[in-house]
Amino acid sequence: MTVKESEMPKQYQNFINGRHFDAKSGKTFENRNPANWDEVLSTFPLSGKEDVDDAVNAARKAFETWRLVPAPSRGNILKKVGDLLTARKEDLARTMTKEMGKVLLETRGDVQEGIDTAYYAASEARRLFGHTVPSELPNKFNMAMRMPIGVAGIITPWNFPMAIPTWKIFPALVCGNSVVFKPASDTPETAAKLVEILIETGVPEGVVNIVHGGGGSVGMAIVDHPSIDLISFTGSSVVGKKISEVASKTLKRVSLELGGKNAQIVMDDARLDLALEGVLWGAFGTTGQRCTATSRLIVHEKVYDKFLSMLVDHTKKLRLGDGLKETTDVGPLVNQGQVETVEKYVRIGADEGAKILTGGKRPDGKELSKGWFYEPTILGGVTPSMRVAREEIFGPVLSVIKVRNITEAIDVTNGTNYGLSSSVYTQDLNNAYQAIRDIRAGITYINAPTIGAEAHMPFGGVKETGNGHREGGWTVYEFFSEWKTVYVDYSGKLQRAQIDTKE
Ligand code: NAD
Q1: CB-count burial class (<10 Å; 0-12, 13-18, 19+) for 478
Q2: C-alpha 156 – ligand 1 centre gap (Å)
Q3: Is the entire prediction scored with pTM above 0.90?
Q4: Which residue CA neighbors atom 11 of ligand 1 most closely?
Q5: C-alpha distances in angstroms, 276 versus 31, 126, 308, 315, 354?
Q6: How many CA atoms lie within 13 A of 5 on its CB side?
Q7: β-strand 253-257 against 262-266: which pairing, if any?
Q8: Active-site positions?
Q9: pLDDT tens profile 413-469
C-alpha cells in the first residue's frame, strides 16, 4: 500500500536570510504527536553551530537596514501579522494541539495571545516614548531616546508554542532588532508557521531567522555567539542558570523567564464554588504544564475537608484524551520525559507521606495506550517541607496543604525558591491586601486562578523564576531597546556641566 502524499510527514527546513536550508549536517529529527506516538507529524533539520553562524551573519547584516526603518512602519507589519494570525487561528491551534497535546480550547487561546501581542506591538511602535528633561545649563537641550540593540537570540519552550515566541519576537522587531529564533524541538511546526507569517507580511530577509535543533547544540551556540547582543530565554531554571553563566562571558543582556511553584490560597470566607473552578483550571489546564500552573493548594483548616472532597469529586470527572476532541478536558503530557518526571514526583510524594487522593498513575484504556497520558492527581496531607511542596513538577499534580490563617498561608506560599504566580480566594478585603503586599511573586490574582496573563500587562517572576526582567506589556520594550542620552548645546560657547552653573 502506498502512503498518500497528504499523509506523509511534511519536511521543514531552517529559514535563514530569506531562504530555506537543510541542516549542514544533513541530519533531521521527527516531530511526533504526544496523543499517539506512532504518528510522525513532520520532520525538521537537526542543526548545529555552523547553521547558527549563518543565521547570525544574516541577522547582523539585516540589522543595519532594519534599524533605520521607522518604528511605526515596523509596527504596520506587526498589524498585518495580527491579521494573518487571526485568519489562520484554527489551523495554528490544531497544529499546536497535535504537536504538544493541550486541548483545542487552550491552543486557540495560545494563538489569541499571539494576536493580542501583535496588535499591542503595532500600537507600541507609535509610542516607544523617550524623555525630554530640563538641562542644568542655559541654552541646552537634554533628551533620552530608545535605540535598537542588535541581534536578539530567542530561545523558547514547548508549552506555549505560539504565545511565548510572539512575546519576544514582536517587541524585538518593533524596537528595530533582528532575530535568530530557536524554538523547542517538541513544537517546531507552530514556530515554523509563525515565521512563515512574518515573512509573508513583509519582514525583510535576514531580519527573522529560524534554526531548528537541540538546546545543547543550537541553543548553546546562540547563547555563546559573540555577534549576538541579547538573549531572551523562557524555560527551566536549570537551563536558565547555565545560559546566564555562558552569556556573561560576552556580556550579553539576558532576560530569563523560568520555573514556578505557584500556589492558590483558599480562605475560610472564600466562595468555594469559585475557588473550585479556579483550581481545576489552574492545576489541570495544559495538563499542569504551565509555568503559572497551580501546583500547590493552600486551604484554611475550617474548609479543608469540605473543599478537598468537592475537589476530588470534580477531578475524577475530568476527561482525559486527545486534545483535538472537543469533549476532552485534559490532554497528554508532551513527551515520555515529562511522564517519567511526574511519575517520579508522585513516588517521592508518597514516600514523604502524602496521600494520593485521586489519580497517581497512567490511565488504563486502549484509546489512551499510545499517548503520554497521566491521570489528574491530588496529593493530600502535604506539608510545606516536602519536595512535592517545593519543587516544580510540571504535570497534572496538585499538592494540598492545610493552614490556620492568612499569615501562615502567605508564609507557606513564599516557602519555595520560585515566585511567579499566586492566587487568593477570599471575600475579606484585609486578607486580599495583606496577600498582595506580602506574597513574593511577580503576579497575584484575587479570586481568580494562578493562570490568565493578558498581553498588555507585565509578566514575570521573582527569586529563581527569573532575573528581574518582565515580558508582556510596556515593560518588555525596556529589555529590547537601549537608552541613548543626547545633549544639544545651542549656546554657542563651551558650557561645563557642574562647573558653569549659576546658583
Ligand atoms: P527547557 O529549559 O528544557 O528548554 C527551553 C528551551 O531551551 C528549549 O528550546 C530547549 O531546546 C532550550 N535549551 C535546553 N538546553 C539548553 C542549553 N543548554 N542552552 C540553550 N538552550 C537550551 O524547558 P522546557 O522543558 O522546554 O519548558 C519547561 C520549563 O519552562 C518549565 O520549567 C517552565 O516553568 C518554564 N516556563 C517558564 C515560563 C515563564 O514565563 N516563566 C513560561 C513557560 C515555561
Answers
A1: middle
A2: 6
A3: yes
A4: 215
A5: 36, 42, 9, 10, 21
A6: 0
A7: unpaired
A8: 257, 291
A9: 999 999 999 999 999 999 999 999 999 999 999 999 999 999 999 999 999 999 999
